[in-house]
Each structure stands twice: as C-alpha cells, then as structure tokens.
Amino acid sequence: MSTKNIRLEVMQALEPKVESFMESFLIKPEDIWQPTDFLPDSEKDTFLQEVKDIREESKDLGYDFWVTMVADTITEEALPTYESWLMDVVGIDQHGDYKTNGWAKWVRAWTAEENRHGDVLNKYLYLSGRVNMREIE
After folding, report:
1. In which domain, by residue range, is 122 found?
2. Using an 8 Å Cβ cutoff, are 129 and 56 in contact?
3. Model's pTM, two decimal places?
C-alpha cells in the first residue's frame, strides 16, 4: 500500500470526528475576539487620543520587540498559503465530494481564527508608527 493511500485512509478515518472537534477546540466566529476589541475604535471621539497613546507607549519598546512583531505579522499573514496547501491534501480537498467534509470545515474555521492574529498585529504596527509598513507589506 502506498504512502498516499495510507494517508488517505487515516484522513478518512479521522474525518467523522474532525467536525465535532470544532465545537470543542474552536470558538464560534460570533463569540470570539476580533482585532477591533484590542485597538482604538475609529467611531469614538477618543480614537485620535488612543492612537497617540499607542504611539507614545511604543517608543519605549526595543528593537527586538519590533523585529518579533514584524516576523509574527508576516507569518500570520501567510495563512492563505497554508490554507491552500492544506486544502489540497488528499482527504481534505475542498473540491468535489470533499468540499463540505469535516477537514475542509476545520481548515476554513482555523484559518479564520488565525487570520485575526495577523489583522491585529498589522493594525497595531500601522498605528504605532514605528515601522515602515510599505516595506513590511
């Protein structure tokens, strides 16, 4: 039996349970935090002051902090690449008969959850004014 067939057999054996794992291990999108929960609210009158506060506080953060933040942001923003790779793994494939299987649903939900990390990091970097966003992007 080939490695590909063994992998497919494992993926298919686990698939019925994967969707139930979403309820145990992933928070529903409507209940989980959003990047805006941690950033200044642009609809409030205090928005500009909150941005000034971020810019002032960020002046005390060292070079190592900013390098780590940039690297983390780039990693988190690469998630669509990871998702496209995962969706083509035999047994997860989002096309044909597999498009609604537990694996495909898990990968989409996981990617949505992880995407928030990149969003909040990117927006914080932008608001801080401490890095060249054009170079990062």
Report:
1. 34-136
2. no
3. 0.76
